[in-house]
Please model this.
Amino acid sequence: HDQSLPVGATAIYLGGGYPERFAEQLAENHSMKRSIQQFANSGHPVYAECGGMMYLSESIIDLDGTSWQMVGVIPISTRMLTKKKRLGYTQTETQIGTILGPPHTTFRGHEFHYSEVVDCKLPFDWSAPYRVSNARGGAIRSAGLSRKNVLASYIHQHFATHKC
Model:
């Protein structure tokens, strides 16, 4: 319901959640979306995981096929699915320097989501900063989205395991 970010904020952490449940209200809060866009463009750190990443995207497409306009900081859209897309613990290593630390920063986390990235229109200055395996060290894949001061992914990081 807030109309803007708190005065004096120096970073944004958009945690997980269920933005699809509030997609209409989030889409209609134009002043907050502008506030977040301006904040991200100012160079302040913006970290988003799972539902937070979905909120920073251009849109969320719900199960009825309705597209709800989100913040638009990340040039992707997300689409809700009827089945789980991913569930499990992760071992993550940054491949580049990010707002979380230098290259090769590691952490554990988990993923649990019923959505997927679609309409990915990433220009050359966006990168996939993470190298991710499951907690047992299985299949390795790239993940996440990073550009300057913005870092987002489906991974819910367990900050106590963060190692530089």
Summary: The mean pLDDT is 90.
